[in-house]
Design a protein that fits this description.
Strand order of the largest sheet of chain A: 7-8-9-10-18-15-14-12
Number of domains of chain A: 3
Helix content of chain A: 25-40%
CATH topology of the largest domain in chain A: Beta-galactosidase, Chain A, domain 5
Largest interface: A-B, 54 and 54 residues
CATH architecture of the largest domain in chain A: Distorted Sandwich
Number of helices of chain A: 18
CATH class of the largest domain in chain A: Mainly Beta
Radius of gyration of chain A: 28 Å
Structural class of chain A: alpha+beta
Oligomer: homodimer
Number of strands of chain A: 26
C-alpha cells in the first residue's frame, strides 16, 4: 500500500533531521541572504521590497516594548482572541526579519514572547468562551490554537539559533508540549479526522515536530496519533481532495486549508526532498490550488458555495503564501502571476522573491486565465461534482456554476443541482453564502450565526428546486452526506453552445430531479442560459424554483399583487425568513421578469403552461438581530406530479448612465414551447426576435454514438448522442 | 444698469459677426491644425489622441451609410428618442473630425443629416409622448430639443464651409427656423424663464444665431424674446447662481446646466472677446464649476441633493467639455486636472489639448482638493445655503453636508436642515436622491417616477426633523419656494473642531427648528459628529428624526421588538413607503445603534431622556412597480412641545476581512447629558471612554465679541462668541 511505503520513507527522513541547520522550515540562511540583497536593490520599488517594508513597519511597532500575552478570556473579535492571533503573526514576521536583517532585536522579541507562552500554556484549560466540544486553550476553538502552532512553530525555527539550550527547553516543554499533548491526547478524536481543521492541527504538530526535532510529533503529524497512516497529513492529502483537486467543502475552504498544506509540505520538502511531497498524488496540491483559483469570480472572490463569506477573495493572506510556495515548487505559471499582481504583496521567502521578480514584467494579464472547467467531487472522483460553463473574456466573462456535488461535510448546504450566475464580475443569480460576520464580536463572537443553518444552508436559499417547502434530505446533514448528485453528460467543445446535465435521486425520496443547462453565446448578439429542470415524482407535490436575482426590478410581462402588509413565505426550512413582496398566477405563455444589475439588464423568461404561481420575496422576516442581508428572489411554484421548469436567462442590453441611454433593454425571447416530453426524449424550442432555437435531449442514453430521431409535426429531427441543438432564422 | 450696458455691447458684437470665418464657435481652423498635429504625434498615447481615436471609431461606423432621421414617436429610452439624441452627437463629432482631418466624408455625413432634418422639422407638431405643457418636437420634452439645437448649431458651423449657399438656406429655413420659432413663439413663456432648461434653450437659439449670422436670434438668446434683458442668457448668468456659484437646484443640476453656459459663452467669446463673457459677474461660470466639483464625494458622485441621480459623477460628458473650456478660458488649475485625470478623455478642442498635455505629468494628485466650504443660496446670497464640513484627506476624507438652503425650484426637496454624511468615499447617512431611471423606457419612459414626489422629495426621506408626519410646508412647493433657512454661525478655523448652526422658522408654522453640528477629529483617535437638533413649538407635536443609515445592523444597546408581519410607518407624506421593521421605547440614558458600512463601523448614540420611540424602517411598501431602492433608516420619535434631539455619530473602528480582525468596533460614547437648556444658553457634555467633551452654545447672540458665562454645579464656564468647546481627560 502506497501509504505504508510513504510511512517508512518518512521514518528515515526524521532520522536525517538531526543534521538540519536552523532555520530550514520557511526559509534558510541562503534564502535570507538573497532576500536581503533584493530589499537593498536600488531599482524602482519591487513588490518584495514593499512587502518587506510593510512587514518591518508592522513589527517595528512592537520592538523593544513589553509584549502582552494575556490570559485567554474573549471569543473571536474580543481582545484576548485578537491579541493571541496578532502575537503569532508577529513572532513569525519578526523571526523572518531577524534572518533577513540579522538584527537581534527581532529575535529578542520572539524569544520574550515564546518564553511568556512557555509560562502561560501549561496553566491553560478549556477556553471560557468555548461553545463546541473542540475548545481551544488560547482561543475559543481548537482550530485557532492549531493556527498558533503552525506560525509559532515556524517562528521557533527562525530564532532557534538565537536561543540558549535552556531557553529552548523551556519553550519546547512550556509553550509547545501542552498544546501538542492537548491536540494529540485530549482532542485525539478531533485531531485524527480527515477534515480541513485537522489539516491545520497536523501541520501545527508536524512543524513543531520538525522545528524541535521531535520524531514522535512528526510521525503523529504525518500518520495520526496511532502512526498508522489512516489519518494524519498524508491521508489528508489522499482523502480531502478529489483527483482533480476539488475540496468538498468548496473553494472558500480550499483557500483556508491550502495554507497548512503548502506550508507544512514546504517544510517537509526542505527537511527531506526525497519524500517528494509536492509530487504526491499527481501533484495534488498544485491541482487544489489551481482548481480553487478557477472557482473564483473575476474580482477574485470565491464562488460562495456552502458556508462561504463573500468578502473573501484570492488576495487573502493564505493564498499569498500558497501561491509563492507553489511558484517555487512547481515552477510554471498557470496564471499565478495574474493573481499575485492583484495580491500586490508576497511572502518573504524564496517563492515570494521569484514572484516579485516576475511581476516586474508589464506583460502580465489582468485577469486569471479562466475557462470552462469541471471538477469531480469525492476522493475517487465519483461523487458528482461541479461544472463551470464560461464564455466571454476579461470583464465580459460570464460564468454559470452548476453544483451536483456531495453534501460538503459540516459546512455543506442543501443545494443539490443549484446554479449561480456571474457576469461582468457581478453576481447575477446568487447563492447567499454563509450567515456570519467573522471577527466581529457583536455578531455572536464572529461565529456562524443561527441563521446560517436556519436560512443560508436551506434549499430555498439556493437556485434549485424545493419540494413541499422542505429542504433536501429534510435538512439532515448526516443523511445528505450519504448521497451525491451525478453528472449525466456535458459538452464544452463548442464555446458558443456549452451544455451540462445532472441528476439527483436522493434529495427527496421518490422524486428524481434533473437539470440540463445550456450556456449560449452570440445568439442575436446576446448570451443566454437555457435551464430545463424536471422533477419526476410518484405523486403530486408542490415544487418551488427560486432565482435569487441581484438587482432592481425593471419590468414584468405579468400582473402581480403587492400586499398591504408583509407576511412570510412559510414557516420552516428557511421560508420563514422570506417576506412575500408580490404574488402572481399564470397558466399559459411565458412569464418575463427583467432586472437591472449595475449597468446591465437580465431577463428571466419561464414557461408557465403548467399553472404557475410567482412570488417576489425579500429576506428579513424572523431575523430579530438583523443578521441576514436584505436580498431578493423570484420563485416559480408548480403543484403537480412531475412538472417541468423551462426557463431562459437572457443577458440583454446595457445601461449607459453617462449618456443616459439604455440599449437592448427588452428581452428577445418571444416564445418557449415544449414540443415533446416523454421518457425517451425532450424536445423544445425557444423563439427569439429573429431566431428560433431548437433543442432535443436523449433522456435514456448519453451514448455519444447512439442515434435518435423524433418527428415533430411532420418535421424529422435526427441526431447522435445526448443532445441536439439547432439555430434557425425565423 | 449693468445689464443694459452689456446689452448694447452685444449689439455691436452682432454687427461684427459678418466678418467671421467658419468654423469659429467650438473650434477654428488654427485649432484644428494644432489638434491634427497632436493626433499625429508619435509619443506615447495621449488622452487627446485616445479621445480622437474613440470619436473617430464611433463616427466611422456611420460614414457612408444611410442616416436615419425617424419621425418622432417614442419617449426617452425608445428608439426615435435615442436616435435623434445619437444623431446630434454624431453631427457634432463628425463636424469636428471634418475640420481636424480635412476629410469631406465627415462633412457629407453632417450635410445629409442636416438636410433630412430640414425636411422633417417643418412637419413636426407636439411630440406624441408629451406629458408636460413643454412638449418638444423631436423629443418628448422641449429640453431635449434644446440639446439638439446646441449640438446641431455647432455642427452647422463646423461644416458651414462645405455647404453650398442653397444647402445653407435649406438647413437654416428647414432645420433651424421651425425649432427657433417653436421655442421663441409657441414656448415663449417657457423660453423666457430663469431656469436651467431655458439656459439650454437660449444657448441653442444663440448658437444657431451665431452660426447662421442671425442677429435676431442672438439678441433673443442673450436678452429674451423681448430683447429687454430681464430674461435670456445674461440674466440667467446673473440670476441662477448665488454669488459664490451655488445653483439652487443643487450640484447634480449644475452639472447639467454648466454645459450650455460654457459652450455658449465660449462661442460668444470667440465671436466677440470684447464682451468678456467669462469675466461676467466676477467670473461666475468659474465659480459655478468649482463649487459644483466641491459638492462631490471622493468617487466623483454629486451630493444627491434635491432630484439627483446617484450614478452621475464628474466624469459625465457635460463636465468633460466644461472643464476643458474652463481650463482654456480661466487658465489656472484649481484641481481641474485631478478631475480630468478621472474623466480620462477630453473634448477635441483647444482646452482639451491643454488638458491632455498637462495630464502627461505624473504629478497630478488622485483626489480633487476638497476642503470645508460654504455656499450661499439665492442670487444675492441671502437665501440660506449649504455648509460642507470636512476632515481627513484622500481616501479618509469625511464630509458632513448641511443644507439650509431655499427650496431649489421644481427639483427641490422638503429637506430643510437635513444632513448627509460621507466617509471613505461611501454614503454613510444618505439622501435618497431622486426616484428615476433616466433613459430606461420601462421605467415610465425614463421620466421622474411618481415615487419621486411621493417619497424621495418628502421630508421623511431626509435626515431632518418631521413634525406630525407631515412634510415641510405641507409638501407645497410654491409655499416652500417662498422661504429659506438661515445660517446662525459657523467656524472652520480649527480643523479638529468645525461647527455650523442654522435655523428654520417657516417649514412648520409656529415651530422653530434649529440644528447645530460639530465635526470633530482626533478625539480618542476617532471622528465624531455632534448633532443638536432643537424644535421650539407653541404646542405639543410628534417629532421624528430619521437617520438614513447605509449598512448592516451590528448591534444596539436597547431591546426592540420585530413584528411577525410588516406594516407601514404611516399613511402619507412618504411614511406610506416605509415598512416598520422594528420598534423600541426608551426614556433614559442613551440609545446606541451600530452599523457596518463596508469595512467601517458607525455608531449613532442619542439621548433618550425625553421619552423616545425608536423605529427601524425599510423602504418598499406601497411601491407596486418596485421603483424605489430598498433602503433603511432609524427614526427617533419624541412627542413633546419642544424636544431636544442630541446625537453623536461616531466613526469607530475598522473591519479587516482579509485578516478577520475588527478593530475598535465598539462605541466610545458612554454618556450624553444636557446640563443647561434655556433661551440664553445650551450646555451639554459627552462622556467618552477616556475623555469628556463639554459644549456650550449662546442661543441669543452670535456676536464674536460678546461674553458669556454660566455656572453648572459650581463650575464656572466662560467664553466669548457663539460657542464654547473643551476637551478634558476623564
Amino acid at each position: 500500500m502506497l501509504k505504508n511505503i510513504l510511512f517508512f520513507a518518512t521514518c528515515l527522513m526524521v532520522v536525517h533531521l538531526n543534521a538540519q541547520t536552523h532555520p530550514f522550515l520557511f526559509l534558510n540562511k541562503q534564502d535570507a541572504r538573497t532576500l536581503l540583497q533584493a530589499t537593498k536593490s536600488n531599482e524602482s520599488i519591487s513588490v518584495l521590497k514593499a512587502s518587506f517594508v510593510e512587514t518591518k513597519k508592522e513589527v517595528d511597532e512592537y520592538v523593544g516594548k513589553e509584549v502582552d500575552v494575556p490570559i485567554p478570556k474573549d471569543p473571536a473579535g474580543g481582545y484576548t482572541h485578537d491579541k493571541h492571533k496578532a502575537n503569532y503573526m508577529l513572532m513569525f514576521n519578526a523571526g523572518i526579519l531577524y534572518n533577513i536583517t540579522g538584527e537581534t532585536k527581532y529575535a529578542l522579541l520572539v524569544k520574550n514572547m515564546l518564553l511568556k507562552y512557555a509560562v502561560l500554556n501549561p496553566t491553560l484549560k478549556k477556553h471560557p468562551q468555548s461553545t463546541s466540544p473542540f475548545s481551544g486553550h488560547l482561543f475559543w476553538q481548537s482550530l485557532n490554537d492549531a493556527n498558533w502552532m503552525v506560525y509559532t512553530g515556524l517562528a521557533y525555527d527562525l530564532v532557534y539559533n538565537y536561543l540558549s539550550a535552556d531557553e529552548r527547553k523551556k519553550i519546547e516543554i512550556g509553550a509547545f508540549k501542552p498544546e501538542v499533548d492537548y491536540f494529540t491526547i485530549d482532542l485525539k478524536d478531533w485531531y485524527d479526522r480527515l477534515h480541513n481543521h485537522s489539516v491545520w492541527a497536523c501541520a501545527g504538530v508536524g512543524i513543531i515536530g520538525l522545528a524541535t526535532n521531535n520524531k514522535d510529533y512528526v510521525d503523529m503529524a504525518l500518520y495520526g496519533t496511532d502512526k498508522k497512516g489512516k489519518v494524519g497529513f498524508i491521508a489528508q492529502m489522499d482523502n480531502l481532495f478529489s483527483p482533480d483537486g476539488y475540496y468538498t467543502e468548496g473553494p472558500y475552504y480550499t483557500r483556508y486549508a491550502i495554507l497548512p498544506y503548502m506550508v507544512f509540505a514546504n517544510a517537509l520538502e526542505n527537511a527531506n526532498p526525497k519524500l517528494k511531497i509536492f509530487e504526491h498524488r499527481n501533484s495534488i496540491l498544485q491541482k487544489a490550488l489551481i482548481t480553487c483559483l478557477q472557482l473564483t469570480n473575476i474580482n477574485g472572490s470565491f464562488f460562495p458555495l456552502n458556508d462561504a463569506l463573500k468578502e473573501k477573495d484570492f488576495t487573502s493572506n493564505e493564498l499569498v503564501t500558497a501561491i509563492d510556495i507553489a511558484r517555487n515548487r512547481y515552477g510554471n505559471d498557470n496564471g499565478l502571476l495574474t493573481v499575485a499582481k492583484k495580491q500586490n504583496r508576497v511572502s518573504l521567502d524564496k517563492g515570494g522573491l521569484l514572484i516579485s521578480n516576475a511581476l516586474k514584467s508589464n506583460k502580465i494579464e489582468n485577469v486569471f486565465p479562466y475557462k470552462s472547467i469541471e471538477s469531480t467531487d469525492g476522493v475517487l472522483g465519483n461523487e458528482g461534482g461541479l461544472s463551470v460553463l464560461r464564455n466571454g473574456s476579461n470583464e465580459n466573462l460570464s460564468s454559470l456554476v452548476f453544483k451536483y456535488a456531495s453534501q460538503g461535510l459540516g459546512h455543506g448546504h442543501f443545494d443539490r443541482l443549484s446554479i449561480n450566475v456571474f457576469d461582468k464580475g457581478n453576481e447575477i443569480l446568487q447563492d447567499y453564502g454563509s450567515a456570519r460576520f467573522i471577527g466581529i464580536e457583536q455578531k455572536f463572537g464572529g461565529r456562524y450565526l443561527n441563521e446560517n443553518a436556519q436560512y443560508a444552508a436551506q434549499t430555498i436559499a439556493h437556485n434549485t428546486l424545493v419540494q413541499d417547502e422542505t429542504s433536501h434530505f429534510g435538512g439532515d446533514i448526516e443523511l445528505g452526506q450519504q448521497y451525491h448528485a451525478d453528472k449525466v453528460f456535458s459538452d464544452f467543445t463548442n464555446s458558443n453552445v456549452q451544455v451540462v446535465s445532472a441528476v439527483d435521486k436522493n434529495a427527496y425520496k421518490g422524486t428524481e430531479l434533473k437539470r440540463t443547462l445550456f450556456l449560449l453565446d452570440s445568439i442575436e448578439g446576446r448570451k443566454y442560459i437555457i435551464d430545463l429542470f424536471t422533477s419526476n415524482s410518484n405523486t403530486v407535490h408542490q415544487f418551488d424554483l427560486p432565482f435569487h436575482y441581484n438587482g432592481q426590478v425593471m419590468s414584468t410581462n405579468f400582473k402581480y399583487a403587492t400586499p398591504k402588509t408583509l407576511e412570510t413565505m412559510g414557516k420552516h426550512d428557511g421560508y420563514e425568513f422570506l417576506w412575500k413582496e408580490a404574488e402572481a398566477e399564470m397558466n399559459q405563455g411565458i412569464a418575463q421578469f427583467t432586472f437591472l444589475n449595475k449597468d446591465k439588464f437580465y431577463t428571466i423568461s419561464t414557461l408557465t403552461n403548467d399553472a404557475t404561481n410567482i412570488y417576489l420575496t425579500r429576506i428579513g422576516a424572523n431575523d430579530p438581530n438583523f443578521n441576514l442581508r436584505s436580498e431578493t428572489s423570484i420563485v416559480f411554484r408548480k403543484t403537480k406530479q412531475s412538472p417541468v421548469f423551462l426557463s431562459v436567462v437572457e443577458m440583454n442590453g446595457f445601461y449607459d448612465t453617462r449618456n443616459e441611454f439604455s440599449y437592448d433593454s427588452y428581452a428577445n425571447v418571444k416564445e418557449i414551447k415544449i414540443l415533446q416530453q416523454d421518457e425517451k426524449t425532450t424536445v423544445f424550442k425557444i423563439v427569439l426576435k429573429n431566431t428560433t432555437l431548437l433543442f432535443a435531449l436523449s433522456n435514456k442514453s448519453v451514448d455519444q454514438k447512439e442515434k435518435h430521431d423524433v418527428t415533430i409535426s411532420s418535421e424529422h429531427i435526427k441526431w447522435e448522442g445526448p443532445y441536439y441543438f439547432k439555430k434557425m432564422n425565423n
